[in-house]
Fold these 2 entries.
Entry 1:
Amino acid sequence: MKPDLATRTAALAQAVAAGAGRLDRELADEARGVVERARERGGLSAEHTVAALAGATGSGKSSVLNAVAGTELAEPGVQRPTTSHALAAVWGEGADDLLDWLDVRRRHEMEPDADATPSNRSAGLLRRARPPAGISTGLVLLDLPDHDSVVVEHRVRAERLVERADLLVWVVDPQKYADAALHERYLRPLAGRSEVVVVALNQIDRLAPDEAEAILADLRRLVAADGLSGARVLGVSARTGEGVDRLRGLLADAARRREAATARLAADTRAVARRVVDACGQAPPARAADRAQGALVDALEEAAGATTVVDAVRRAAKRDAHLATGWPVTRWITRARKDPLRRLGLRSDQVRVPVDRPDLARTSLPQTRPSVRASAATAVRTYVDQVSAGAPDAWVLAARERGTEAVDRLPDTLDQAVASTRLEEARRPVWWRAVGVLQWLLLAAAVVGLLWLGVAAALRYFQLPALIMPVLTFDFTRWGGGAFDLPWATVLALGGILGGLLVALLARPLAALGARRRAGRVRRRLRTSVEAVAREDVREPVAAEMAALATCREHAATAAA
Ligand SMILES: Nc1nc2c(ncn2[C@@H]2O[C@H](COP(=O)(O)OP(=O)(O)OP(=O)(O)O)[C@@H](O)[C@H]2O)c(=O)[nH]1
Ligand SMILES: [Mg+2]
């Protein structure tokens, strides 16, 4: 089912809103004009059909109005141009607002012709074979100033009414019916609205019958070439009244059916909507966005320095593990080495987090190299181009603008993405702490043992009574070995030192494994953060442009259906 006028104009309005700033300004203005006109005309008398007599000066518009009205309302003139302000012959009451909207001040109320017999016509004016078919319902017949006028105001007034009328009667004469300006400027833009266009060849009394036929045939051909093949073309003579009944009959019929206003507006809407559809081009393939996305995130990850950060996380985790689980005596060597996370400004005391905006956390991560930034910009541009491929230029440019804005923000947004990603830099696994305690116990044992041995040695040196020195017996006879005693002090000293070194040695591969796994988690988290940046800063703004284009295209298609 074809959409009705209200649906069409609403769809056109939506299409124009969606294409605002992207659609050609002139086209958008024209479409808005049609929507506005439909709204305004819709609020005015539906009882009346506005038919406008338009044409070049001297073609006989005023004379035709008089002939149709059957009375001398307008003054036809010898001096050109004659009519400077439109004049209305109005059948049926209640057209005042409509005439105000048309801005027609000169109005003549006509007596509706209920029984189709002329009442107020001056019988002597027209020589008629039979009484004309009467106009019994609402009709506003307008005599327009000349559209091709040398007087600019005439042209402006005429064009405004040509635009607003429901039905157009183009009055042409045998001399100027083929005038290029008439066809190119006025008839061709009405292409496709043949149901609301009538072309009247006036002054046929000045032609021989076969001549009139030939000219009418030529005129029909021209009108068809203008895209108005269904338009009614008829010969009339305002002077003799020939063909005037037929014209009046056409007008009376249109007034009775009351369809012209809707038909004209629907046709105007359809025509401008079709141009909007053309301006929107073909819908780009839907999957383009998905294909381009992986490369985009890869490039942004690189620009965010993800590799550097992940590597620093891994090395810092190892360093922290050594500090926690290494042999306490040699930890200072590790501590003396620079902390990779601190060097990147990623330790929590270095990340600046505004109290009220935790999402705006910033690192002191050094700016990525220009080459990396350039490749991120290229990736964004490639993404935008792939997603907007096939879209009309204005939308491609708009999408690129979104891309450029995103590139400009990238250093900030990516840095925030890194700053807000959990790097686990302060995480201390339980086993670190357990091993740490063990290391201190072993060190304490070693110190006790060494002190004990030291005191014993000192006593011996000074020939003082010896310290009690309990021994621990290592009995390996069960496994075929010997047995020997070691003083507890030695066991504590050696056991503490060797144990500490051994534990530190065993903790190393574990620390490396843990660091690798931590780095893996951080890498995935960074990827997620960067994906969010790609989504919010690049994909969504660009998708919004493409969605607006799709909305514009869909609504315009509805309006043009
Ligand atoms: N022979 C002949 N003359 C006509 C006919 N219709 C109009 N005329 C004459 O043509 C001249 C111009 O007629 P108008 O009715 O003033 O023409 P118009 O189109 O209203 O002209 P503007 O108001 O200047 O745009 C007048 O002298 C009319 O008498 C006709 O059917 N036959
Ligand atoms: Mg006139």
Entry 2:
Amino acid sequence: MKYAIIIPDGAADEPLQELNGKTPFEAANIPNMDRIAMEGRQGTARTVPDGFESGSDVATMCLLGYDPKVYHTGRAPLEAAAQNIPLSRTDWVFRCNLVTVIDGVMKDHSAGGISDAEAQTLLKELSRKLDLPGFEFYTGVSYRNLLVYRGDEEFDVTTKPPHEIPDEPTAKYLPRGKGSEILRRIMDESRELFARHEISQTRIQTGHNPATQVWLWGQGHAPNMPKFTEKFGVQRGAMITGVDLLRGLAVLLGWDVLNVDGMTSFHDTNYAGQGKATAAALDDCDLVFSHIEAPDEASHQADWKTKIAAIEHIDKFIVGPVLEKLRKFPEWRIMVLPDHPTNIATRKHGYAPTSFCMAGTRVKSVVKAPYSEKNSAASDLKVERGHELMEYFLRGGNL
Ligand SMILES: [Zn+2]
């Protein structure tokens, strides 16, 4: 049996005035997803359990079959796994953004998409200035960096993702709770160092947002997740994604992480290359998980045209070739679903259950309707505990 799961990140949405009351899925030309929904079935799954913030870390973990209530320990530990940073059970990982705060207001959670080299220099000098035993910075891509703590300090802190407080005063959202003093001190000291730094001066002079400080959030211990093979009995899995977070999940699940030239998190990504790589990986792997970030990024920019184009590219260049490849195997199954909705109207992640469609061996067709939020919500197939969807899929819709 061969399995393919394709995730158009944040592609689900609400009806839009600009689209005469249609959602981007309904406005897009998606013959392959429609075929999957018509030959097989569609329904909804709640991938963000009550009490969790809607985000790809929670939602993807859930649809991979792991209950976030049991396994989710934070976003930063998943990114640490992607970088293969060794962690013991008691170590802490914090996401360490480089951000632009002007007059106490969060202006940019990405410090103008600061370069890797600039980020490395700033964090190296910050580490030297702080001289805090147990704390270690790990630079990632651009503004996305990590801070690891190995020591006896205990943390029970509340932090805030900086992308959720655009144009808001930062004072309200500083780390709070047990152990937060040291985190605030690191943020304060970074502010003093970065303000005078020539990198900041140069960025301002050339019209770029400077990194005015670090922002710590998303903390947690390493999650203790059983390997996918142990949990579901599927032997060899592979992940194809342009996003660190999902690479981290794949590492924790014991899957291969495959790369594709030109794969990015935006609409400039190499859709055709990803489609080819996903189809080719089915030769050696039992399950291939292919994730595309572009529709989510377009939604955060309220760019519905690009969102529709991204959905159509995914259908044509990824779902189509993968479906064609699967039909060459005696037994196969495919599922397409966004991890969570990202709503153009609010530019934020939504909480509505996500729509899925699946087809293949032993998946019986129930209602013949094209794939859409409305049609999947009308189906009586509602998976309230989203982590149960994986089992349902692997068994061909027979629970
Ligand atoms: Zn998003």
